C-alpha cells in the first residue's frame, strides 16, 4: 500500500508517468452508498504497470470528505467518513496536473464500477489486453527432469508485456500424486482469482508452480479449470522445441 505522503510529494515534483481522461462512467461504493458517480475520472499511472482512477473532488458527495491536519503544500491526506465508516486512504491535490482531483485507495472502497461492470484489484490498463487462442500444438512441462504434464489441447494466453502462457486441461497431468494444493490465492483484474498447486518432485516442493482459475472473469472463461505453469520456473517444450526461461518479475 502506497505511502500517501510520499506519493503526493512525488506526483507534485515529477508528475505522473502518464495521465489521460477516462471516457467511462465511474461509480464508487463505500459503506453501501455510492459516494462517486462521474464521467470525468482520470487514469493516472503512478508507476509504469497500471493506472489508478482519480476522481474530481466535487464528484464526491458533499460532507463525506473531512479535512485533517495532514495537509501539505499542494496536497492533503483526507479522511472519508460515510455514516461512521472511515478510511484515511484518500489523497487530494490543489495544484499541479492533478489539481482538483482525489485518489481513493482502490482496496479501501467497497466496490468500483465501470459503467455497469464491477472491476477488481485495480483498473485495467487501456493499453494492455489479453488474447486466448486454442492450439493443437503439443506442450510438455517438466520440473527437475520429471514430466508433469503434456497435451495437444492447449489454450494459449497472450497478455501484453508477459510471455505466452500455456493453459492445459487437468487431464494433461501425468501423475496427480505430484500435486499438492496450496493455500495461496492471487487476484487479477483480467482473469479473476487464481488458486495454486505445489509440485513435489523427489521430495522437494516447488511451491505455487501451477495456477488455475475456478471462476475466471467473463473475458477469460475459456481457461476455466485449466492449469498453467510459470514459464520462468519450469521447463516447457512446444512441438518438441524447448523454450528459454523468460526473465520477468516472476522469475
Folded structure, characterized:
With 251 residues, the chain is mainly β. It has one helix and 23 strands. The chain has one helix at 4-14, and strands at residues 18-21, 26-30, 33-38, 42-45, 52-56, 65-66, 71-72, 75-82, 85-93, 101-104, 111-114, 117-119, 130-135, 139-143, 146-151, 154-159, 165-168, 179-188, 192-201, 204-212, 227-229, 235-238, 241-242. The strands form four sheets. Strands 1, 4, 5, 6, 7, 8, 9 and 10 form an eight-stranded antiparallel sheet that branches. Strands 13-16-17-21-20-19-18 form a seven-stranded antiparallel sheet, with no helix packed on it. Strands 3-2-11-12 form a four-stranded antiparallel sheet, with no helix packed on it. A hairpin with a 2-residue loop joins β14 (139-143) and β15 (146-151). The mean pLDDT is 95.
* Helix content bin: under 10%
| Ends distance | 23 Å
Low-confidence stretches: none
Which H/E pattern describes the elements? HEEEEEEEEEEEEEEEEEEEEEEE
Overall shape: it is: elongated
What is the count of helical runs?
Answer: 1
Average per-residue pLDDT, rounded, comes to: 95
Rg for CA atoms: 22 Å
Strand content: over 45%
Largest sheet: 8 strands, antiparallel
Number of strands: 23
Structural class: mainly beta
Task: Write the SSE topology.
Elements: H1 4-14, E1 18-21, E2 26-30, E3 33-38, E4 42-45, E5 52-56, E6 65-66, E7 71-72, E8 75-82, E9 85-93, E10 101-104, E11 111-114, E12 117-119, E13 130-135, E14 139-143, E15 146-151, E16 154-159, E17 165-168, E18 179-188, E19 192-201, E20 204-212, E21 227-229, E22 235-238, E23 241-242
Antiparallel strand pairs: 1-4, 2-3, 2-11, 4-5, 5-10, 6-8, 7-8, 8-9, 9-10, 11-12, 13-16, 14-15, 14-22, 16-17, 17-21, 18-19, 19-20, 20-21, 22-23
Amino acid at each position: 500500500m502506497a505511502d500517501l505522503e510520499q506519493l503526493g510529494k512525488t506526483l507534485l515534483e515529477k508528475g505522473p508517468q502518464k495521465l489521460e481522461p477516462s471516457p467511462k462512467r465511474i461509480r464508487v461504493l463505500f459503506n453501501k452508498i455510492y459516494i462517486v458517480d462521474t464521467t470525468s475520472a482520470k487514469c493516472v499511472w503512478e508507476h509504469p504497470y497500471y493506472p489508478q482512477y482519480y476522481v474530481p473532488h466535487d464528484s464526491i458527495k458533499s460532507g463525506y470528505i473531512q479535512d485533517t491536519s495532514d495537509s501539505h503544500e499542494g496536497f492533503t491526506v483526507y479522511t472519508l467518513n460515510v455514516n461512521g465508516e472511515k478510511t484515511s486512504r484518500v489523497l487530494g491535490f490543489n495544484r499541479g496536473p492533478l489539481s482538483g482531483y482525489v485518489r481513493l485507495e482502490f482496496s479501501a472502497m467497497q466496490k468500483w464500477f465501470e459503467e455497469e461492470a464491477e472491476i477488481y484489484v485495480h483498473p485495467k490498463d487501456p493499453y494492455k489486453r489479453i488474447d486466448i487462442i486454442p492450439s493443437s500444438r503439443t506442450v510438455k512441462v517438466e520440473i527437475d527432469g520429471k514430466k508433469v504434464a503434456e497435451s495437444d489441447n492447449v489454450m494459449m494466453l497472450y497478455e501484453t508485456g508477459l510471455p505466452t502462457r500455456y493453459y492445459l486441461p487437468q487431464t494433461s497431468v501425468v501423475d496427480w500424486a505430484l500435486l499438492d494444493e496450496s493455500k495461496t490465492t492471487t487476484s487479477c483484474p483480467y482473469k479473476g482469482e487464481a488458486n495454486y498447486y505445489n509440485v513435489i518432485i523427489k521430495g522437494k516442493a516447488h511451491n505455487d508452480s501451477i495456477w488455475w482459475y475456478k471462476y475466471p472473469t467473463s473475458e477469460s472463461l475459456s481457461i476455466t479449470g485449466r492449469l498453467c505453469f510459470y514459464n520462468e520456473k519450469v521447463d516447457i517444450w512446444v512441438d518438441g522445441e524447448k523454450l528459454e526461461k523468460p526473465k520477468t518479475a516472476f522469475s
